[in-house]
Amino acid sequence: MIKRDTTWISGWNPEDEQYWESTGKAVARRNLIWSIIAEHLGFSIWLVWSIVATKLPQAGFNYTTDQLFQLVALPGLIGSLIRFPYTFAVTAFGGRNWTIISAAVLFIPTIALAYFVTQPDTPFWMMLIVAATAGFGGGNFASSMANISFFYPDRMKGWALGLNAAGGNIGVSGVQLLTPILLGAGFVSFYMAAPGTSGLYLQNAGLMWLLFHGFVVAYEEPTLRRQFGPSYDMYRTNVPRWWPRMKPWRAGFGV
């Protein structure tokens, strides 16, 4: 493999067993782990409205039953449709870049949800738009699977793609288990520490996913800094945390 920089990989040949064992396996595993995390977040946020919509009447929203069903259904529709462009985005922007972009975009539905569920006078059309943004999470599945398929040899593609899909789909059950629990807890609420009139911290359904950002800042970055030292500090100076570079950054360490 030719190491041109830390962003792009050339000369990738996972079918060569010697190359795979010496270099390819570690790179593929690292990409698979982060792909699973990104896809898990995508599925979780995609399905969060299946819980939130049922609690809106308790929070003071005067929506009809039909309107609540529309809030649940719309993210599914949007997520299904954007899987088409998401599939081709990996080859257009690069796997790493698009993984970062698709994960960063999920801040939109989470922050919007956290704000608007505390505003009972929000018109239904606006809440439909907020719910529709959760559909971004549905597109992550298509781009994630397309990205990982490039990293593994044919004999391991089924295992890698199955693990990637399973890790993402666990987000469905995860969000439906955790969200009702966290709706009664105030420790996630940050700037909106008081519950709504119903006693529910409905904003937690969106804010809890910001804890992932906290994990990156508090654990991942210090770990990488200890591993790479000054080289990682140089990387952090040149590569923003949640904003991908369209042009490769040339550096002298790692892949």
Second CATH tier, the architecture = Up-down Bundle
Q: What is the overall shape?
A: elongated
The major β-sheet equals: none
Number of strands: 0
Kindly estimate the percentage of residues that lie in beta strands according to DSSP: under 5%
> Gap between N and C termini, in Å?
10 Å
Q: Give helix % range.
A: 55-70%
Query: Could you state the CATH homologous superfamily?
Result: MFS general substrate transporter like domains
| Total helical segments | 11
Describe the structure.
The chain has 255 residues and is mainly α. It has a single domain (17-238), classed as MFS general substrate transporter like domains (Growth Hormone, Chain: A, Up-down Bundle). It is built from eleven helices and no strands. It has helices at 17-47, 49-55, 65-93, 95-104, 107-116, 124-133, 136-148, 154-182, 204-207, 211-228, 230-238. Helix 1 runs parallel beside helix 4 (95-104) and helix 10 crosses helix 11 (230-238).
Features:
11 helices, disordered C terminus, 255 residues, Growth Hormone, Chain: A, mainly alpha, elongated
Task: Briefly summarize what is shown.
The protein has helices spanning 17-47, 49-55, 65-93, 95-104, 107-116, 124-133, 136-148, 154-182, 204-207, 211-228, 230-238. It has a single domain, classed as MFS general substrate transporter like domains (Growth Hormone, Chain: A).
What's the helix and strand layout?
Elements: H1 17-47, H2 49-55, H3 65-93, H4 95-104, H5 107-116, H6 124-133, H7 136-148, H8 154-182, H9 204-207, H10 211-228, H11 230-238
Helix pairs in contact: 1-4, 1-7, 1-8, 2-3, 3-4, 3-6, 3-7, 4-7, 5-6, 7-8, 10-11
